[in-house]
Amino acid sequence: MHNGPVRIALIDSGLGLLSTAAALRRARPDADLVLSMDPDHMPWGPRTPADVAERALAGARAALPYRPDALVVACNTASVHALDRLRAEFEPGVPVIGTVPAVKPAAATGGPVAVWATPATTGSAYQRELIERFAAGVPVAAVACPGLAEAVESADSERIDAAVADAAGRSPADTAVVVLGCTHYDLVQDRIVSAFARPVALMTAAGAVAAQTLRRLGARPEPDAAPTGALTVLASGRAAGFPERAAGYPAACALTTAQPLSRSAARPSH
Question: What string of DSSP letters covers 12-67?
Fold first, then answer.
């Protein structure tokens, strides 16, 4: 069992990590969070698998001086391509937790299910195998969402609405559950729900990833803990402020009141 506050680093190309960070903040208001983004090299989606792995490794290495207790890969693409390399480098000293689309719980509802993801993830063997493994016999549509992650990253309202409307229009009319297979999509859940003519349920991985992170650390959720957790933002390895473009997303509200964490707040090396 982990004693005392925890310190967790999250890795993504950009704003997609906010939903998981917010879930961790709700579960442990006393947790220190390090958000390691990569604005110099985003988006990661069109990159080769080897390049995505290198970018994720660079993000994790940039966070390491802050002595995190765990590393969370808050990106579906990076979880597919980088998890093995990250675990080989950092475990067992620092647990590495990946992000898996919520296909299994969505399939348990009986569907019909639409899995929204980036074009690269939609066409991947990884997603096909995930659907075959957990959703056999359930109607599942794989819906590529070109441009949606990029629109969310830039907080471009018109582009977000256009990309969401396009993906909703290509989802089966009887869709009951939408799996958000890219962490960026979590930030515009209200727009996605509104784009459907009938009620749909959304399933994201953020809550499950936060819970798994605490389990790996042997730490309990303590939502009533004092909100003493610090927040640090890294931009391609450089210390940075919280991205202004994120201010309009609800997930950001849970994060922006924290004080920054100093590299000098060192802990014993793992």
Answer: -SSGGGHHHHHHHHHH-TT-EEEEEE-TTT---TTS-HHHHHHHHHHHHHHHGGG-
